[in-house]
Known about the structure:
Blueprint: H1 3-13, H2 28-33, H3 40-72, H4 75-87, H5 92-111, H6 117-125, H7 131-141, H8 146-168, H9 173-183, H10 187-199, H11 210-219
Helix pairs in contact: 3-4, 3-7, 3-8, 3-9, 3-10, 5-7, 7-8, 8-9, 8-10
Amino acid sequence: MQDSQIVALLQLSSPALPIGGYSYSQGLEAAIDTQLITDEASAHRWIAQQLEWVLTPCEAPVWLLLFDSWNTCNWERLAHWNAWFLASRETRELRQETEQMAWSLVKLADELAWGSAEARDRLLGLQAVVLPTAHAYACWALGIPRRAGLAAYLFSWLENQTMAALKTVPLGQVAGQRILDQLRLCIPQACTDASRRAASDPPCLHTLAPQLAILSSRHETQYSRLFRS
Length: 229
């Protein structure tokens, strides 16, 4: 990667990016409320399993399919996978999360003129844009390589989950860094597995995570909470 690509990737992955990522816990807060997560070890296990069983089999390969659609200007395929991912969100709050964060990123990409005017028009013309679509667009428009963009997407998710655990378990800063330091090593393999799934014909995807869906549904009416999801 060139220096310009690296700094663009850093900007896109920064916690300062105003898309609301730290407003969400993706079921982690509900898992804490039901005492599935009580300490560093259980937080590490929850995040690791979600990376392996939820993101790698579905969200990561869909991100790659969307990036490829932007790269080849295949608008029909782009609309298909954007709609497919939205339909795969099992609960109201998971759908609201991906739409809100995507809307914020789309607005930012448009205001900063990332990509060509034609490509931005295509992005703005999509109904109910999801976060993988918007993030893949930003990486493609900024000239960030495909695998590096996916790795950054997964690390941003990992960092968000760790920060949610720090605030709500709660955990200390060093415990959070231990979780990040150990689980970041899983991201290269997750990218490899996602690439294999995306390259299959048809793509090898699954979203079976019933406990996450149940906890997300419960979180929508949880009595006291810090996070929007």
